[in-house]
Amino acid sequence: MKRRLLLVSNSTLHVGRYLQHCKQQIQDFFWKVRKRILFVPYVLHDRDTYTKTARDKFKTLGYEVDSVHETPDPVDAVRKAEGILLVTEIRKRVLEDGIPYMGSSAGTNVSTISINTTNDMPVVYTPTFAAIGLVPFNINPHNLDPDPSSKHMGETREQRIIQYHEEPDTPCVLGLREGSMLLVEGNNATLLGCTKARLFQRGTQTTGYEPGSDLSFLRTDAQ
Amino acid sequence: MKRRLLLVSNSTLHVGRYLQHCKQQIQDFFWKVRKRILFVPYVLHDRDTYTKTARDKFKTLGYEVDSVHETPDPVDAVRKAEGILLVTEIRKRVLEDGIPYMGSSAGTNVSTISINTTNDMPVVYTPTFAAIGLVPFNINPHNLDPDPSSKHMGETREQRIIQYHEEPDTPCVLGLREGSMLLVEGNNATLLGCTKARLFQRGTQTTGYEPGSDLSFLRTDAQ
Predict the structure, then answer these.
(1) Which Gene3D superfamilies does the record cross-reference, listed alphabetically (chains A, B) (predicted)?
(2) SS3 B79
(3) Is the ipTM above a cut-off of 0.95?
(4) Which chain A residues are within 8 Å of B10, Cβ to Cβ?
(5) Cβ-based contacts of A115 with chain B (< 8 Å)
């Protein structure tokens, strides 16, 4: 399998600028790749501004950014492509052609089995929660530990993931705290970054992993 | 319109037991109602335990609780009912027959236009986000103010609601902080409880409201 993925928890850390905390990993990851990167900005409403942010950042790293939302296709075609063709095409190019895929936050969510373990409100309806499936498990980016001093009674991330695992046949969920990222190369997976990650498995105790951990065993949690 | 609704932000406050903070409002609300209350426990996986919690609590207030999940219908029928018949039937009984409806947290979400402004992860796929529509606006229960000391970079509730309002034709969203609830009687709506609420409107500044505020104008935010 040719797959090469860099799945980042979050684009911006509390102290730092856009993609600054994973700049080194991005440079290592895209090294020797041709100089053009395709950017998918659909997570935000203002796609022009978001594309400019990404374009400016990647320019400082030596890459040109093309955004799918700037293609000459009419809006309808882009919308259809977004739901069907784009997902299939991304999957094909990443898994068969070995084109490197980097996601951060929402881009990490959509690379997994499903978007059931994204955070916050489902403010836009999607006809399916199925995702691109570049890895055979789910990820919860921006994973957050409960604040012991909080008086808020809403469910914690851990409680929601446990509820997710109350459903049958749900894959394990890798909780990537902010500052954390997963590098996947073929069948090897390594935890990178400055924070630890947590692995939530259905019916099993949650396990913590330090940066540098080999998480290649996750490939056996097959679909 | 006969509608009578009590829409509570949350079932349990940090200090206190299940439904304790809104006990008085529940007693005022169900006063003179027949002694049986129909409980819909589908928000949690363990419906027996959740029903027992509600049943025990309402017993101390003088009410018997029937849970829809205990009906003799087979599972499939209940599942279908949950999605179609139950919603239609609840809507009919509340709006036409004047049966009082009380919701808390998820029960508040499903009483509104849609569940787009529920919190946290969409851990279970639903074929529609449309809700029962007992009021012509949305509610965000457990509404939470940003913590100025937090270093977490995930979106705040306010940011998500603003993203919701980037979509066309989205209704206003009443943010009910924990401890807050909305009493709707016919065309009158009053904010009750111990915390303030925030009203998010598309293209307009957010407005805060004190407990006791008359929010009857929300009925004019018609679809």
Answers:
(1) 3.40.50.880
(2) helix
(3) no
(4) 153-154
(5) 122
